[in-house]
Amino acid sequence: MDVPRRRRSPVLILEHSKRVALPLKRMLGLAVILTLVGTGCDGGRQLGAKELLQQSKSLQSEAAEGALLAEDAVSGKATSIYTREHAFELYRAASEIEASLKAAVSEPALELELGKLAVLANQISADLKRLSSASTVEQRILTRELHKAAQASQKLGEGLA
Amino acid sequence: MSLKNILAVALGIFSAIGGFVDIGDLVFNTQAGATFGFQLLWVVVVGVLGIIVYSEMCGRVSAVSERPVFDLVRERTGFGAGLATLVASEVVNLMTCAAEIGGVAICLQLLSGLPYRVLIPLAVIGLAVSSWVLPFRWIERVFGYLGLCLLVFAVAAIKLHPDWSQVAHGFIPGSHSGGSLMVYLYFVVGLLGAAMTPYEVYFYSSGVVEDHWGPKDLGLNKVTAMIGYGLGGFLSFALMIVSAILFLPSGISPQFLGTPALAVEHTFGQVGLLLALVGILFAVGGAAIETSFAGAYNLAQFFGWNWGKKARPARAPRFALSWVVIFALALLVVMTGYDPVKLTEYSVIFSVVALPLTYLPILLVANDHSYMGAHVNGKLANFLGVLYFIVILVIAVAAIPLLLLTNGGQG
């Protein structure tokens, strides 16, 4: 059986939507703020020895993986597509670390290590970006550079442990 | 047993081997090998034995009662507990399906060089069309057999000449080195969760009903579960061994799905790389189909709808719509850009939390004479079933705290 529906006046609908829209906007604003706070935006984040050690391990991993990939690319073991795509993935991860290190602060005693790690991250991400479109000659150079960068990250990490 | 039957068993086993490894196994086994070397090999044995015990039980329950497990779960545990199991399993299924689809898109990207975001919808369309067009048996065979390309990891593990005495030592649980105790325990939980994923059990039991297995097929059920999962476990060993040899010494912590392929590429060159990528593509693609079907099976069986891959969609429309919707939802999740490897880690850990809800009803029904008659659990099945249920309870309680305390295994 059909139940007759009352038609609502457009004005009432508008007022109702305004009443709904205002708390909705506030809630959305709050959600954005909470998300930004939750993610930390990585802006000015204070890093202790543990966090720096973690970042150095991640950099070591990306540099070492990049070195292995570059070595395989030089010897013709890797396809050009795989080298390009995987190197780009590694570059993106390293550049994220670089961005977070640049924006971070640390205790005064760890400022030197933070600075060194940021420089290293910059070098590793630049090398990995180059690797994604490098010639064989460049790949050979990048193999050595990334290998050295991995060792430097490891050494920095050992100092922080 | 006739030659035809032997061939059918062999084909079933081969597809089970290829279909055993999914994105969870790839992620956790390579990360565990890169962090702890061979020290966690024993966990793979425990996990594989667990999935054999419960898959055999589950297949037996379905073959004897001629009803799928979720149908019995609702009947045996009541609506409330059944609904809780359904919700938990559907959430985990969706997360796993999304992670597998992300994995398929990454493999396609590494093979073709096309953009990841373009490949995600293409992957979903390809999987959905395969699911719609191909008969059940062909889905199993195509994805299972091509997934067998993953055996290149086993060959690589041998070619890398590991110290076999150290490998053997890894099968004995004991003290650990290379990471904190918390991280070690996190990987124990993750490896067990990856080996005993609930969707495998739901998919397997529904397949038993679809294939009209009866009490006469209980031998086949036992052989398929034992040899299929058992040999499939070797792929997990291979992944961990290869990772331990190549990644651990250089401090590589595999955070990308393309990283395991790097190990094979380093060993065998471009042919090895292509085999590894094709193997991962089909193993993960097959698992994506299994998760979407497992989700649809669960919904249809819980609500009493017509179901079955073998039935025409017009005869089981809500079942067909369910797996299409699961694919669509998974597509939305992956399109957010969330890292599939991280999604895998979360899906495995959350599936561990849901494990008791999956396995307790199976254990109860397998012990119920009114359902099972003469095929009720024997002493060994009960001993192992109860033992594993205790293990499952412990890891279910520990999973989330370990995830948080170790920052997802990062330490």
Topology:
The complex is a heterodimer of chains A (161) and B (411).
Chain A: H1 10-39, E1 46-47, H2 49-74, H3 80-103, E2 105-106, H4 111-131, H5 136-160
Parallel strand pairs in A: 1-2
Chain B: H1 3-20, H2 23-36, H3 41-65, H4 69-112, H5 116-133, H6 136-147, H7 151-159, H8 164-169, H9 181-195, H10 198-210, H11 218-246, H12 259-268, H13 270-303, H14 317-335, H15 340-366, H16 369-372, H17 379-405
Helix pairs in contact in B: 1-6, 1-11, 2-9, 2-11, 2-15, 3-9, 3-10, 3-11, 3-15, 3-17, 4-5, 4-10, 4-13, 4-14, 4-15, 5-14, 6-13, 7-11, 7-12, 9-15, 9-17, 10-13, 12-13, 13-14, 15-17
How would you characterize this protein structure?
The complex is a heterodimer of chains A (about 160) and B (about 400). Chain A folds into 2 domains: about 35 residues; about 120 residues. The radius of gyration of chain A is 25 Å and the shape is elongated. Chain A has about 160 residues and is mainly alpha-helical. The N terminus of chain A is likely disordered. In chain A, helix 3 packs antiparallel against helix 4 and helix 4 runs antiparallel to helix 5. Chain B is mainly α. Chain B has a single domain, classed as Amino acid/polyamine transporter I. The relative contact order of chain B is 0.21. The chains are: A mainly alpha (about 160), B mainly alpha (about 400). Chains A and B meet through helix 2 and helix 3 of A and helix 4, helix 12 and helix 13 of B.
